[in-house]
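Team,

Forwarding the record for the chain on the shared tracking sheet. I've put the sequence and predicted structure together so nobody has to dig through attachments.
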Amino acid sequence: MKTLLLSACLAGVALAGCGGASGGKQSTANPASPPASAPSVQAPPLWNPAAKLPPTADIPMLEPVTRVTVHRAIEGEHQFLSGPAIVAHKNRLFACWTNSKRDEEPDAQCLRGRWSKDGGLTWGPVQTVAGDATPARSYGHGTLMSHQGRLWVFAARFTPDKPMAVNMEAFVYDERGDRWLPRGPVATEFWPCQAPQPRPGGGWILGGDHGIYPGEGPAVAIIDDKDVTKWRVVDIPFKYAAKKDDKPPYAVETTLWAAPQEVTAIMRNSYGNAALTSISRDGGDTWSPVVESNFPMAQSKPYSGLLSTGQRYLVCNSASREFLVLAVSRPGAKSLEKAWMLRQGRAPARWPTRSKSPQWSYPWAIEHEGKLYVTYSVAKEDCELTIVPLSALKTD
């Protein structure tokens, strides 16, 4: 693997951390004590080198699956949609996404969603979660968490007092009033890109992006106990050895495999066509140097998780956003070794703009009742869902 980023080595700082990870900067008023020095480690390969990965055009379509339209944009209303998320809560499913009137406009977005009572086959009316698509109350896509009987949304808030800064704010669902109640900021300069995962050693951890739009580098948010309103942000060391004409870091959207002994971060790569990766062996407090992996991935947001079968999975775009791929590992293995195509081909925008193109992008996934539910944006206008039985994901 090619090491791209070694900020922990700058200015003579030794690689450090529990289990050999390099130190991560914490965005918190009470930073942790400096970690003890330890040898450097490197993330294992994302794709098993002994397994053949077909060219993108030859990756087989996954069958059987069920495909459902969750939301279809209406002309003249909210014609831009991105970042759909989905969660199971009290025998229902809830999906939400960010909307704006015409195009991707950070100062004019709102968070909306729909409920399903029949396992995702049909969806109810649109419900506003956060924002009114004005500069004072503009929200990008966020994450969902069903926790201790309550449903939470953690949304990316574009702050009006600091241009292009993004904070994570909380909203909780009021069951009786069928409405969303604000709970204020819960993390500073952080954009969530994944559902919270159980953290090794206790608490929760989720992947995201350091929140100066469109992003300054990969980061995670952590809570050490049960209070989901008190997240601390840890940056994953990211220092690209830029060439003269390279652009600065852009949307290094991060997703995680939070395994009991090791957390693996998988990141969008704005400089190449392979996923970036890093590992932590102390629950996300310190991280290894970020490296370019051996798994090809288009420049788009990935999503990952652990299945009840013991398999790891990754949903991402391959070659371009016109190919949406699902890859899995063997049960108990650390590397992926089988891949299927979820969607492919051109999905053109009905109302083209500068930020829209034919794509199946920004995936999200949850396991629920023996199935993997994968949501994604279609041409950044609509939200669709592919329902995959876990029995279809065998690697034998």
